[in-house]
Every structure is written in structure tokens, then in C-alpha cells.
Amino acid sequence: MSQSLLRAACGLFVGLSLASCASGPASKSVEPSMFSNELRSEHRGSDDLLTAGLGLAGLRSMAPPAFADATAPTVDELRRRAMWGSWRGIADLAPGGGYGELFGSLQSVPGREYSAFARLPGAKQPHRVLAQVPDNFDTAKRCVLVAPASGSRGIYGAVSVAAAWGLPKGCAVVYTDKGAGSDYYDLDAQMGVRANGTVGALGDVDDLAFVPDAPVNAAGVAFKHAHSKDNPEADWGRHVKQAAEFALLALEQAYPQAAPFTFDNTRIIAVGISNGGGAVLRAAELEGDWLDAVVAGEPSIYSSGPGARALYDYTTEAALLMPCAQLHMGNLPQPPMTAALQAGAAVRCATLAAEGVISGATPAAQAQAAYDLMLSKGWTDASLRAGALSTGFDLWRAIAATYASAYGRYGVGEHPCGFNFAAQNPDFSPRAATAAERAAWIADGSGIPPGAGVGLLDSKVALPDLTYAGLKCLRGLWDGQGEDAKRVQAGIQATHAGLPRKGLPVMVVHGADDGLIPPAFSSAPYAAAAKAAGREVSYWKVQNVQHFDGFLGLPDYGSRYLPLLPYVYEALDRVQARLDKGTALPADALIATTPRAGKPLTAEHLAMPK
């Protein structure tokens, strides 16, 4: 069969089941019934596994790859655009940033993709899994990287983290959206995203990735992270393991003559950043010898170590206090701290003072008080300064609203603080989504609105401090005593991390300037607790690195900050040496880097440990 015919018959976003497209015995260590809606595709020639044929030039384009028909994009168009967005959302690809020259790879990697829905026992909704098997996969030296998406991103969300390191080396890579992802559901039209990425209507197809439990008259948009009623974060470690199991099945389809592929004869390394980093650390605590090593970058992890705080705790705190505290600070990175945002921050200071949260009779005194309060809670100057990005783009509120819904297992229309999601008019009033918006959600959505044509609706908005009432409600779910608070608090406790398995090599890498997930609340206490318990954990904290490599293309950010990804790739090199040669993991280090200050990135700037 020709390549074009095979793609048409078994395309990732078209296809037949794995069994229909290839044959071979199932892995004895995996239960195939946990997977459904399996699809397969081949990617060679003008297409590939790593960049969907876009290469560096295509990924650098400021405009996303276009759809020939905006209301009915093809499956290849959706994949290419999802790849473009996933790369740009994570990596700094700008000239001078070093990607593809000093670190990382964008070489074309031909191979095959296998995807499916996976479902944990008891889960109401599936998570997506997708395995990439390069043509240079070495059946004599079998390796798989398991890569959960960061944030709430879609299935390609970790391509720059794992595939750029693993695929050129001949490793397979398998992803999971870990129960989040960009499978939005249009409540007005009763339409959702199919297994192949296209949009389908409820009742007309049987392969929608997410169908919420919602009232028949519900309006707006539902998405899996907020509305699955599964509290997916509690199971992120299990999602990672299930993705690894799917990779073994995919390898048996790709290489039936080399079957079986099992955890005993295939190396499994888990790697992730942000809450994907938290997911791989949760996988590290699972029983059994299925996992060989872990690399976690800037992980969102809630542990028992000294100073540990839950994401929801410090997120809701930052949402309330940080706008005011940052008025006390000069030289904040730009964008987005505009004069209008600063005026809003002054209003927040006045609100906090009136509520008795801070003292001060003037905006300057109030800002000083908010700043001092945040320092007393463990925030640093570096994290507050880098947090200007999250303040300016209203990330704190978006994260808190979504996670409150997830932790409490609330459905559509049940949010305890009255938040909902919908397409919006210019005056921010809700409206029905258009066909073009709906068609692009799988490729353009970040998994947490606002974005991709979907907005955050706050029923408590009121002058003079527009967002304060909603944020105060969200904070009350953390430190309150009501039934909703207890429900959310129970969900948060279900995400509490344990120790990694004894003998499992783990490397944790975190930017010292991280303003979204400060290391003092997350990676530092986790590493301290693990090392105190005698676990094999190496911890690198990197100066002048914040949370978002994808913003380093902005001149002010690129001048101040360095990328995290080179250290993640180096950590992967180190755990590979540990597994291949028995080389000890590197010592803990505070890596003293040098900002680029507008110059091209060099090895001297990175100061990588020897």
C-alpha cells in the first residue's frame, strides 16, 4: 500500500484501530481493554514526528499554520497547528536563544504515531495518550520517554520537553494529557472533539473525547480539567504509568517480530515540566519496578517537606496580594504591566486595606505592607518580580477558578464561586461559539480558558475592584469551614505527594526566579524530604530562570532570564549515564548563571555543572 493510501486509511485523526492497522501479540504486562478509539498514522517526507514538517522557520512564524477551511480543518492541518502551538508555548525559539544550536534538536524524525483514549478504573472521563515511534527505534536497546503535558495542555504539550531529546536518540515517546487537555465541549451546540481531533455532534458519533455531565439547558463551554468530576490531579501518577503501558502496546504493533515489549525489557524514563513535572514525581512513588528514572523540571508538587505549600494555597494568595505588592517593586519585566494594570493594582491595595488584610493610609504604604506580607509567607523578590507576568495576564484567577472546580469535582454550572466559561462579545457578555472557533479548540486551546475564543465568566464582578469578590470566594475555599471549602480541601489533600520509590534515580531542576511555582513551596521541600528519607534525588536550582521559556523571545524577558529546557535535557543526559554506566547522579547545585543582556545565548551564560 502506498504511503498516501496508508495515511488515508490509518491516519492519526482518521484511522482504524491499532489491531486494524497492524498485527502482533499484545504485551503480557498490559491490559488492552483500558484503551479505546485507537488510531495510527505515518509521518515521513514533508511531515515528521518532531515538528510536523514545520522546522525551525515554520515554528518561528508568528501566524499559526492556516486552515484551508476555517470551519472544517483537515486532520493534518489540526495536527500541524497543535504542534506549532505546543512548541511555541514551551520553548524559546527566537534567534539568539540557542535552540537547535546550543541545545535541543529540530531535526526531521520520520516515524509512526499511535493514539487512543485511556481510562483509569472508576474515572468518569478518559485521558488521551499518544505514542511516537521513530523509524530509528532500536529494538536491541529499547527506550521510552513518558511525557505528561504541562499545565492543562493538549496531547502534544510536552513535545519540546521529551521528543526533542528522545526521538533523535531513537527512543519512543509517549504523551498523556493527564485528564486535562484541549477537548472542549460546546454546550450550546452539543458538540465536542472526536478522537481524530475533528468536531462531532453528540449522538452522531461515538468517539467524543469529553462529554460533560451537564443540565440539558446548560450554555457556554465545558472543558475536561474543570468539569470531568474526576479531580484528575489526584491520579496524575497513574496517568503517567498508563501512558507507559500504552507505549508498550504501540511498540508491539510497530515491531511485532520483536514482541513482547514489557517493563522488564524496555527502559522507561518519565520527564515533565510544571505540573507535568509534578505528574512524573507522583509516578515515581508508585509501587513496582516499571519506571527506571525520572526528570522533573519546575515541578508543581505538594509534599511534606519544610515550607511545602499546595498550588491552590499560594495561587489564591498571589491572586489577591501580588498586584498590590508589585506596586512596591520597580523594574518589573515587560510586558504586561501597563499603566491601566497599575491603576487596578492601586485599587486592590485600597480594597485589601479596607478589608483589614494589610495596613497603610496611602497606596505606597499599602503596597509596602502587601509586599512585606508576601515575603513573610515565603515569597522572594525574584519570584514576585517574575510573577508580574502571571499578574498581568490574569493567570492566577484562571488557574484558581479551574482548580477549585477540579478539586471539588464540580460539574457544569456548579462552581461554588460562580465561575463559568463561554465565548464572549467585546463587552465580555457570553455568546455562542462560532463553528470556526469550535473547530480550532483542539489545536489552539491551552486547556484553561481564557484563550482560543473562550473566556472566563465571573458572576461576582463588581466595582471598584472588579475581580476581588470572586478571588475572595476562591481563597475562602482554601481557608474556610463551609461544606464547599471542605470539599475542595479534600480534593487538594488527595494530590499530596509521597516519596519516590527506593533506588529510583530522580533529578529535579527548577528556576530560582520562578514566579508561578516558586521552588520554596514545591521542589525544594520535596527534594529535602526525599533526600532525608534516603532516596536517590539530585536537585539543581538555577539562578536567573523563571517559569516560561516561551516568553524569552520578548526582549525584556530574554535579557533578564535564561531558559530552563537546557537543564532538563542535561538532566536527561545525566540519568541516562546513571542507567547506562552506573555513573552517580550529580551533586545538588545552585547554578550561578549569567543573564544574556541582549546577547546571543552561550554556554558561558548557562554555566552547566561539569
Q: Give the mean pLDDT.
A: 94
Distance between the termini: 50 Å
Report strand %.
Answer: 5-15%
What proportion of the residues is helical, as a percent range?
25-40%
CA radius of gyration: 23 Å
User: If helices are DSSP runs of H or I spanning 4 or more residues, what is the number of helices?
Assistant: 21
Low-confidence stretches: 1-29
Major sheet: order of its strands? 1-2-3-5-4-10-11-15-16-17
- Give the strand tally: 17
Largest sheet: 10 strands, mixed
Principal-axes shape call: globular
Helix-strand category: alpha/beta
List keywords for this structure.
610 residues, alpha/beta, ten-stranded mixed sheet, three-stranded antiparallel sheet, 17 strands, globular, disordered N terminus
What would you note in describing this structure?
The protein is built from 21 helices and 17 strands. The protein has helices at 3-10, 18-21, 55-60, 75-90, 159-166, 224-227, 236-254, 275-284, 311-326, 339-354, 363-376, 381-386, 388-392, 395-407, 435-444, 468-479, 483-493, 523-532, 555-560, 565-581, 603-606; strands at residues 35-43, 111-118, 127-134, 143-148, 172-176, 185-186, 191-193, 199-201, 221-222, 267-273, 293-297, 419-424, 430-431, 455-458, 506-511, 537-542, 589-591. Strands 1-2-3-5-4-10-11-15-16-17 form a ten-stranded mixed sheet, sandwiched between helices. A three-stranded antiparallel sheet has the order 13-12-14, with no helix packed on it. The protein starts with a helix and ends with a helix. Mean pLDDT is 94; it is low at 1-29.
